[in-house]
Amino acid sequence: MKAGKASLLVGYLCTLFYAVVLSSSGLAEQRLLAKEHQKISEEVERLAIENQVLEEREKRLQNDSYALEKEARKYYLLSESSRVIKFVEAMSAKELSPSGPKAAQVSLQMKMTEPPLFVLRFFYISFSVFLCLGVYFKLKSLPPQSKL
Length: 148
Fold this sequence. Notes:
By secondary structure, the chain is mostly helical. Helices cover 66% and strands 0% of the residues. The protein has helices spanning 3-22, 27-63, 65-76, 93-96, 117-141. Residues 37-71 form a coiled coil. This is Septum formation initiator.
């Protein structure tokens, strides 16, 4: 096999591997996106459960005076002899306008267990170029073989 053809074949195989594994729609990117999707799905489920718990707590505090007194004693250090008075306020325009959800303020912290994809791409391209050059120069330096 001639040096030019062999290095082109190696280059083609390296390009094919890059396209399948390391490209923007490759297997590595899909795996990262699947992990991120899983984390976000778990966060959504956790926040939905937390939201239900907070809604139930809010309804209980609005409707049950005993629960309201218990919360007031717990968080505001009221004594047993003190009285809790519940005031009903009219809803203002500020309360009617929806504000951003608290979930939007939560930042996802990703642990870096593997190098970023751009680093892998850089080293792979560097490796591929040197591999192709090495194959080319190695085969170029070999003495020609006679055909039988």
